[in-house]
From TrEMBL:
Protein name: Ketimine reductase mu-crystallin
EC number(s) reported in the record: 1.5.1.1, 1.5.1.25
GO molecular function: delta1-piperideine-2-carboxylate reductase activity; NADP binding; protein homodimerization activity; pyrroline-2-carboxylate reductase activity; thiomorpholine-carboxylate dehydrogenase activity; thyroid hormone binding; transcription corepressor activity
Pfam name, any one: OCD_Mu_crystall
Matches recorded under PANTHER family: KETIMINE REDUCTASE MU-CRYSTALLIN
Catalytic activities: (3R)-1,4-thiomorpholine-3-carboxylate + NAD(+) = 3,4-dehydrothiomorpholine-3-carboxylate + NADH + 2 H(+); L-proline + NAD(+) = 1-pyrroline-2-carboxylate + NADH + H(+); Delta(2)-thiazoline-2-carboxylate + NADPH + 2 H(+) = L-thiazolidine-2-carboxylate + NADP(+); L-proline + NADP(+) = 1-pyrroline-2-carboxylate + NADPH + H(+)
């Protein structure tokens, strides 16, 4: 059994803002882009369709030599059912001891998925956003919409934020 098990509220406590991930993610993206010299081994996510139930299981293993970190995320994503008490995306992150392969920690992956994805979008936006952009438009109004809203409002300045529920939020 792993010595560390972190439930969703505990992960949230350590990762209360997506922007906390920015330095580590920028370094990881740089290492990944450097190819073999960057020491990241991260195959394309394997996805198993669960056709009778409209779902998927994704497996996302990675090793980073710079961090000496060996991990995998397991993520299921199912067709979103309105009013379902079960989130459309559920994830777990497993952390291994890279020296001997022992399982060290099991982390709830929902908060990590929400904040990692938004933080990576923010990094891309920092590099690609035209200087004249004034309006942030968010498609959907679920978990990712919220986490993207949170970090984009922290890092950038917009005059307006629009979402697909038809709400417009005036920022200035
Ligand atoms: N690249 C990555 O790393 C990741 C990508 N994702 C992807 O991001 C997307 C959002 O995920 P997440 O926020 O967790 O999902 P949620 O289920 O929390 O939210 C989905 C949102 O999209 C809305 N929606 C669904 N269909 C439509 C449509 N046709 N037009 C407009 N809005 C629509 C839903 O509205 P309603 O509730 O009314 O149906 C809901 O608000 C998904 O495609 C997911 O797979 C997610 C995690 C990581
Ligand atoms: O990378 C992820 O995490 C996911 N990507 C697509 C949908 C499920 C989660």
């Amino acid at each position: 059994m792993p010595r560390v098990i972190l439930k969703q509220d505990e992960v949230e406590k350590y990762l209360h803002r997506a922007s906390l991930l920015l330095p580590a993610l920028e370094a990881a993206l740089g290492n990944f882009s450097a190819g073999a010299a960057g020491g990241v081994v991260q195959p394309v996510r394997a996805v198993v369709p669960v056709r009778p139930h409209g779902g998927y299981l994704g497996v996302m293993p990675a090793y980073s030599a710079a961090d000496d970190a060996l991990t995998t995320k397991l993520v299921t994503f199912y067709e979103h059912k309105k009013d379902s008490s079960v989130p459309s995306h559920q994830a777990t992150v497993l952390l291994f001891d890279p020296t001997n392969g022992s399982l060290k920690a099991v982390l709830d992956g929902s908060v990590i998925t929400a904040k990692r994805t938004a933080a990576v979008s923010a990094i891309a936006t920092k590099l690609l956003m035209p200087a004249f952009a004034e309006v942030l438009c968010i498609l959907g109004a679920g978990v990712q919409a919220y986490s993207h809203y949170e970090i984009f409002m922290e890092l950038f300045t917009f005059k307006e934020v629009m979402d697909t529920t038809g709400h417009i939020h005036f920022c200035l």
